[in-house]
Structure formats: C-alpha cells, structure tokens
C-alpha cells in the first residue's frame, strides 16, 4: 500500500493558479500510475488527470485540458497538479490516488475508473471565487 498526503490547496480568485502536491510513502511510489480526482459538493468524485508510473504518459479530463498539468518527481516520490486559469467550477475537494497495480497499464479508460486506484489521500480543498 502507498500512503498519500496532499498539500497546496486553498482559496484563489478565478483566473489564478494553484499547485497541488501529493507526497507518497510506503511501497515504492515510482512503480505506480498516479491520479488526481475531485469531488464537488453534491457530486460524484470525478477523474481529473493521471500520469503513468514512468511519467511518459498523461491524460486529462476534458474540463481541465489545457489548464491543468500533472507531473511527477520520482526522486522525491511526489506528484504535482499545476492548475492555471482556475474557474469557480473547479471548486472541489481534490484527491490524489495510486493505481492498485504496480507498473499498471497506460490506458485512458483504465485510468478514468476510480476502482482501479487502491490508495487515496485524505483530500484537500480548493475554492475558486469569482
């Protein structure tokens, strides 16, 4: 199991930027695809972005494509989500997650399924005001 701790959330004006970090510990985090999901009040948790264990492949939800960037530093066991041009509809609790499988598939449909992620952080709040 991989333990995950998010940081970097907060309150930001629309159009602004935030960078979320996810520090991993436990099993070698660099073996795992990492993802970011978010959950807004009254809504289901949804896929935001994912990055393969090697860092060579990424994928984004259409709603954040071109504004958010996911990247990882395996030497630091940390995954980041750079969020630019934030909108009020980005307001949510953001969760970092690790694939259940080491060296899992680089498959977009696989990554978008919450059930394929076995380790989750506690979540961090992002509020974007207009």
Task: Describe, in plain words, how this protein is organized in 3D.
The strands form 2 sheets. Strands 2, 4, 5, 6, 9, 10 and 11 form a 7-stranded mixed sheet that branches. The protein has a 4-stranded antiparallel sheet with strand order 1-3-8-7, with no helix packed on it. A hairpin with a 6-residue loop joins strand 4 and strand 5 (46-51). The protein starts with a strand and ends with a strand. The mean pLDDT is 95. With 130 residues, the protein is mainly beta. It has one helix at 108-111, and strands at residues 2-7, 10-13, 18-26, 32-39, 46-51, 58-60, 68-73, 78-83, 92-102, 117-120, 124-129.
* pLDDT < 50 runs, ≥5 residues: none
Biggest beta-sheet profile? 7 strands, mixed
**Distance N terminus to C terminus?**
39 Å
Sheet/helix structural class: mainly beta
Question: How many H/I helical runs?
Answer: 1
Helix content: under 10%
Question: How large is the radius of gyration?
Answer: 13 Å
Mean pLDDT across the residues is: 95
SSE pattern, N- to C-terminal:
EEEEEEEEEHEE
Overall geometry:
globular
**Proportion of strand residues:** over 45%
- The counted number of beta strands is 11
Short description:
Helices cover 3% and strands 53% of the residues. It has 1 helix and 11 strands; from the N terminus they run βββββββββαββ.
Task: Give the key terms.
130 residues, 1 helix, 11 strands
Question: What's the helix and strand layout?
Answer:
Blueprint: E1 2-7, E2 10-13, E3 18-26, E4 32-39, E5 46-51, E6 58-60, E7 68-73, E8 78-83, E9 92-102, H1 108-111, E10 117-120, E11 124-129
Parallel strand pairs: 2-11
Antiparallel strand pairs: 1-3, 3-8, 4-5, 4-9, 5-6, 7-8, 9-10, 9-11
């Amino acid at each position: 199991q991989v333990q995950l701790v998010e940081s970097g959330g907060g309150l930001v004006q629309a159009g602004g930027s935030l960078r979320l970090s996810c520090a991993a510990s436990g099993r070698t985090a660099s073996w795992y695809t990492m993802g970011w999901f978010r959950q807004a009040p009254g809504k289901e948790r949804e896929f935001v972005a994912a990055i393969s264990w090697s860092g060579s492949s990424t994928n984004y939800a259409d709603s954040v494509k071109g504004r958010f960037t996911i990247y990882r530093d395996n030497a630091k066991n940390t995954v980041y989500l750079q969020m630019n041009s934030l909108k009020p509809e980005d307001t949510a609790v953001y969760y970092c997650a690790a694939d259940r499988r080491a060296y899992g598939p680089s498959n977009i449909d696989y990554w978008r399924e919450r059930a394929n992620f076995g380790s989750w952080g506690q979540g961090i709040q992002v509020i974007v005001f207009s």
